[in-house]
Structure formats: C-alpha cells, structure tokens
C-alpha cells in the first residue's frame, strides 16, 4: 500500500469514484468486514465522497442557462442559479 492510501482518488473520474464508493457501501452493509478494515474503507469512502462532491460542484459551476429574447431566440447565457 502507498504512503498515502487515498492518493489515487484524485485521478478518478466522477463515475469511477462513485462506483468505488458504491462497492464500499456494499461491503460495509454486508457486515462481514473486520473492524480495522471497516475503519479503513470507511475513511476511503469519506475521501471518495468528498472527491465526488468537488467534481459535482465543478460541473454545476459550468452549467449555464441559455437566455432567450422575447421572440424566443438565444441571446446569451447566465449561471444556472441566477434569477
């Protein structure tokens, strides 16, 4: 195992991290994982969740809402949350 066990998470796509997190949840829900391993994989799950949250926030920041003129033609874009 590397010095930093969760270092590989930084290179994961959202889909890869989510899949790894789902495997961890499945393992923990089964309840047949030794306590020390449960703690390690729980901590990895927390790191995966944080990574997914960062990637999702970044994607949300890039999403824009198209503004339309009165006649329905696109005239520009604005942040999705702007009103």
Would you write up a description of this structure?
The radius of gyration is 20 Å and the shape is elongated. The N and C termini lie far apart (49 Å). It has helices spanning 14-30, 35-62; strands at residues 64-68, 74-79. It has 83 residues and is an alpha+beta fold. Strand 1 (64-68) and strand 2 (74-79) form a beta hairpin. It contains 2 helices and 2 strands. The protein has a two-stranded antiparallel sheet.
Task: Give helix and strand order, one letter per element, not per position.
Answer: HHEE
Strand content: 5-15%
Query: What spatial form do the alpha-carbon principal axes imply?
Result: elongated
What structural class is derived from the secondary structure elements? alpha+beta
Strand order of the largest sheet: 1-2
Main sheet makeup: 2 strands, antiparallel
Please state the average pLDDT score: 85
What is the rounded distance between the termini? 49 Å
| Tally of strands | 2
Helical residues, percent? 40-55%
**Low-confidence blocks of residues:** none
Question: Any idea what the radius of gyration is?
Answer: 20 Å
Q: Counting H and I runs of at least 4 residues, what is the number of helices?
A: 2
